[in-house]
Design goal:
By secondary structure, the chain is mainly alpha-helical. 47% of the residues lie in helices and 4% in strands. The longest helix has 29 residues.
Length: 595
């Protein structure tokens, strides 16, 4: 039994290696790309976060390196002496792993990958040996700006993006596609940047412009259009789960359009993404917060609201707070934080206690409706409508009295009580100029406790606002609030926010992100198709002062983006999903564009 376990154990150790140098003439074996998926497929069932047979855990480098109940499992440079290789290769002296029925067997090619890694020294990355976070997962490591790779076909390259893409294509001996024709380019750009087709006149003008910078001028013109904010605002509002109704049974209308307009205006003004983040997460807490900064916190008010009679309001308040945390985790961090609401996350290094420490940032404050006083010329008209409504109520009282034969004043009292709630809800608190659903900081924050098994009625230890230990920590302070958390999200040391954000941009231009699972950068998410390109883009985003328009321009002016989308059968055999980007993707138009 121990031999089989040791095999898996060794197999895991091998998986921990992120970059494996093959022998002369052989391509590198990459741990995350080539090895870890094998481990995930064949070994996590018995040696993952939930279960560690014989004390062996293989889903993180630290756990793998700590060994099993039977000690070490690999001899660097000596695959023939390494139990990992011996058991996965089916040596006559050992039970082959994984055992039948416990995981998908390894192919002979996969066993060779393990052998090559061990024989080359089984070297680990420095950050995997010294990382204090408890996780070697790639997305939790701070992006280091990689050098732009050297390529052969330098004439094709228009900016750094192309060098990273072409380097991968040249590894596979694939040539990129030629540039699309100019009509296709202006249509593609118009739909991607504005969500609208170009007019015939705009197409003719672009075709007639023979200057070398004609394409760049077109990009600048489209980025300056007010329709840019509408197009990219829709993408953001989708991530923010924007809705104009409350959900649940009644699904009555809500007043969220001011937040929608704030998003559009912020994008058109190219508000830096760090400021864009802080104002939505905690704009109301900024010193001297403006009305627009308060409106920005409408991001949090997009959660469902239950208006049904008999609903436990505290239960649904807790659900709304949880929804705000889950959405923030997906949009900025690319993490499935909701998995830790009831228990420690099974795959990512997030404990249940850490979940409620983040929960505390959103639990401390209140929902608030920000009124907009009516202009003077509207106040008199509004009062007339209110008086008319009062008269209609009085007439209804008299009719009820006539039908049921009870004193009118009695019915009047009853109707007054019955309609007081309606008046308060729909008339008195609202002005004709409208209101905005926002957040308001409480002078005395609520106490937050761990909810045992996620049950808000079964509360445990008191917790204060904090962030997971696997990520950079907040500055030292007696207490932290929602504004501290907002600033932490866009701190340059946060490894997730810049990666997640540029990946989401990339997805809208190419159909699939560099990380295909755009809302899950955790252990169960997909690995980047171009990890160095992702880190370079993340670093560049920060270097360009978090300018979203600058990143859009960088992407759409690349040769990669400008390629033809014509299908290439010979390339499809090698890369059927077009992950190497040997051509541009052919994307269906969004429903909003067609409408």
């Amino acid at each position: 039994m121990w031999r089989g376990t040791a095999a898996l154990f060794i197999f895991a150790s091998m998986l921990v290696s992120r970059t494996i140098q093959g022998s002369a003439g052989e391509p590198q074996v990459d741990y995350l790309r080539d090895i870890k998926p094998l481990l995930k497929r064949s070994c996590y069932r018995c040696h993952g976060a939930a279960k560690q047979t014989s004390g062996l855990r293989l889903d993180t480098a630290r756990a793998t390196l700590s060994g099993s109940d039977f000690g070490e499992a690999i001899v660097p440079g000596e695959s023939g002496e390494s139990l990992l290789y011996l058991v996965v290769s089916g040596s006559k002296d050992y039970q082959q792993m994984p055992p039948a029925g416990e995981g998908e067997p390894l192919t002979s090619e996969e066993v060779v990958l393990i052998q090559r890694w061990i024989d080359s020294g089984a070297k680990f990355h420095d950050h995997q040996q010294s990382d204090d976070s408890g996780s070697d997962h790639w997305s939790f490591q701070k992006p280091e700006r990689p050098a732009v790779p050297a390529i052969k076909n330098s004439a094709w390259v228009r900016n750094e993006i192309d060098a990273f893409v072409l380097a991968r294509l040249e590894e596979k001996q694939i040539s990129p596609s030629p540039e699309a024709d100019r009509v296709t380019l202006i249509r593609r750009l118009s739909f991607d940047l504005l969500g609208l087709p170009p007019t015939p006149e705009e197409v003719s003008q672009f075709l007639a412009d023979k200057k070398p910078n004609a394409y760049e001028k077109l990009v600048d013109r489209l980025l300056a259009s007010p329709h840019y904010g509408e197009r990219w605002g829709r993408h953001w509002l989708d991530a923010a789960r924007y809705a104009d109704s409350n959900g649940y049974g009644f699904d009555s209308a809500r007043n969220m359009w001011r937040y929608r307009d704030w998003v559009i205006n912020a994008l058109n003004a190219d508000m830096p993404f760090d400021q864009f983040t802080i104002e939505q997460i905690a704009g109301d807490m900024l010193p001297g917060a403006t009305r627009d900064q308060i409106i920005a916190t409408g991001f949090h008010r997009n959660s469902l609201i239950n208006e049904e009679g008999g609903a436990d309001q505290e239960q649904f308040r807790i659900d709304a707070v949880a929804d705000r945390l889950h959405t923030t985790g997906a949009v900025w961090l690319g993490l499935t934080l909701e998995c830790a609401r009831c228990h420690t996350h099974r795959y990512d290094p997030i404990t249940q206690r850490e979940y409620y420490e983040m929960f505390a940032f959103f639990n401390a404050d209140d929902d608030y409706d920000l009124n907009f006083p009516p202009p003077p010329d509207m106040a008199e008209e509004f009062q007339k409508k209110l008086d008319k409504f009062d008269g209609e109520l009085a007439e209804l009282d008299r009719k009820i009295a006539a039908v049921y034969g009870t004193p009118a004043e009695t019915n009047g009292e009853l109707k007054k009580l019955m309609n007081e709630r309606t008046r308060k809800m729909w008339i008195k608190p609202r002005s004709p100029a409208g209101w905005a659903m926002v957040m308001q900081h409480r002078e005395q924050p609520r106490i937050t406790r761990v909810h045992k098994r996620g049950n808000f009625l079964d509360q445990g230890d008191i917790v204060a606002g904090s962030v997971p230990a696997v990520l950079p920590q907040l500055p030292e302070a007696e207490a932290h609030n929602r504004l501290d958390f907002a600033r932490w999200l866009v701190d340059e040391n946060n490894p997730l926010t810049p990666r997640v954000t540029v990946n989401r941009m990339w997805q809208h231009y190419f159909g699939t992100g560099i990380v295909e699972t755009e809302n899950d950068f955790g252990a169960q998410g997909e690995r980047p198709s171009h990890p160095q390109l992702l880190d370079w883009l993340a670093s560049e985003f920060i270097a360009r002062s978090w300018s979203m328009k600058a990143m859009h321009k960088l992407i759409v002016t690349s040769a990669t983006y400008r390629q033809s989308s014509h299908y290439r059968p010979e390339v499809a055999k090698i890369d059927p999903a077009n992950r190497l980007l040997a051509r541009q993707s052919r994307l269906r138009l969004d429903a909003e564009i067609i409408r």
